[in-house]
Here is the input.
Amino acid sequence: MAMLIDNTGTTIIPKLEIANTFFRRFVGLQLRSSLPSDSGIWISPCSSIHTCFMRFPIDVWMLDRNGIILHSKRNVYPWRIVVAPRGTHSIVETMAGTLSLANGQQVKVTQT
Here is the structure.
């Protein structure tokens, strides 16, 4: 899977993991030593995350059902909790500092 900016088709995350089962959502990025800069994980459905047992900081992108970025949280360190704003349907996690996206941008997930 990959994540694109919807209106331009620009690929922003070429290697996107999907966490759409209870187990995959629960495990997420825990216990990994790092995340490649061209990778991310899309957690759906999801309205909050924790970074317990993580070893590196991440950026968190909170999306509504239409893929519109409602809010972002940059440089979230291990052992933190992030509660997303109302209307959040899914969350994308990337390595801290790898993307520059703005609230209101629309993204979409596609098969690669």
